[in-house]
Amino acid sequence: MLDEFDTIVHFDLFEAPKARLLIIYTGGTLGMDYDAGGTLVPCGFDSVLRRAPVIKELQINLSVLSFKVPIDSSSVEIKHWQQMAEIIYNNYSDYDGFLILHGTDTMAYSASALSFMLQGLDKPVVFTGAQLPIASPRSDAKENLVTSLEIASDKKEGKPIITEVCIFFNNRLIRGNRAKKVESQQFDAFESENYPILAQAGITIDYQWSYLMPSANKDLVLTTKMNPSVIVLKLFPGLQPATVDHIIKAPNIKGVILESYGAGNVPHQKWFLNLLEEGVKSDKIILNISQCNGGKVMHGKYETSSKLDEIGVISGEDLTTEAATTKMMYALGRYSNIKDIQNCLTTPIRGEMN
Ligand code: ASP
Description:
This protein is α/β, with parallel strands linked by helices. The chain has helices spanning 45-51, 78-90, 107-117, 141-153, 241-249, 270-281, 303-306, 308-311, 321-334, 338-346, and strands at 9-11, 19-27, 32-34, 40-42, 60-71, 97-101, 118-119, 125-128, 155-156, 159-160, 165-169, 172-175, 179-181, 190-192, 199-201, 205-207, 221-222, 230-234, 255-260, 285-290, 314-315. The longest helix is centred in the C-terminal third of the chain and has 14 residues, at 321-334. It starts with 8 loop residues before the first strand and ends in an 8-residue tail after the last helix. Aspartic acid binds at residues 28-29, 72-74, 103-105, 129, 131.
C-alpha cells in the first residue's frame, strides 16, 4: 500500500524540541513550480524546504513522508485517504501531531474522510496548502505552512490543543468536516459551514476553546473501508424523470446524496417522490442535504419536504456535501445492515453535524 511513498526523511534538529511532527506531503499548488511552458506542475518536498528554510527553525523535530509522485488533489482517490490514515495510525505514538500538505481542490473531502477513518483521534491532524506556489514571491504557502506547524505542535498542560482533523488556511483553523472550498482566486479559499472557526491566527493564535473537539480519551481506531457506490444528485429546475430514474436505479449505486433546495425542499411532482420511494424500497440510502452553504435540512418545514420522512429519505441536517459524501462512503463501508447505516448517518460522529 505504501510503495507510492518515498522513504521517510527525519530532521531531528533539536535536542529538546517542543514537538515532533510528521508531515505527509501529497502535492498540490503549495509545492508546485512552473515548467518550461509556464504550466504549474507538482514538485517534490525538497523544493518546499528550499523555499521555506524557516521551518527548520521552529524548535520542532520534523519527519517527512512524500508521495513519490506528488499529485494535484483533483486526482485524489479513496486509496490516498486510506494511505494517509494508515500512515497516521502506524506512526501515531511516535509523533505529537501530523501535517498534511494537500491541494486545495479536494482538501475538504480528504479532511472529512480522515475525520471518519480516525475515530478516537487525540492529536492534531492539520491539512494545509496554498493558492499560489511557494516558488511565487506573493505566495501564501509559507504563512500557511509555518502557522500549521505551530498549531500542530501547540500544547496545553503537556497535551495537544487540537485533537481533530482540521484545515488551516489564510489565518483560520476550520474543522475539516465543516470546511468547504469557496474561492479559487483569492487567498481565503475555505469557509467553515454551520460551525464557528476553531482558531484565528494573528499576532497570537487565538483558539476558540469552547468549539474545539474535547479529548477523546480513547484508543485510536482505524477504519479505512470506504464504499464508493455513492452519487451526488444535485437538483435543478428541469431535471428529467429519466435522469433521476437512471441514477436511483443504477445497480452500482447504494447511496444517493440528494442536494436539495433551501431547507431540504424537493419537487412536489409525483414522479419524483415515487422514484425516491422506489429507491428506498430497493435498499438505496437517500440522504438529503441542502444546496445552501448555511442552514440545514428540515423535513416538513415546507409542504415540498413533508413526504420525505414518510418515504424514508434521511435528513442530512447541516452536513456539507463533502462531509455527506465521505460519511456515506464510510457508513456503507463499515455497516451492511440498513438500520446501522441509517443510524450512522443520522448521528454526529466527529462534529460534522449539529
Ligand atoms: N489544483 C490544485 C490542487 O488541488 C489547487 C491547489 O492546490 O490549490 O492540487
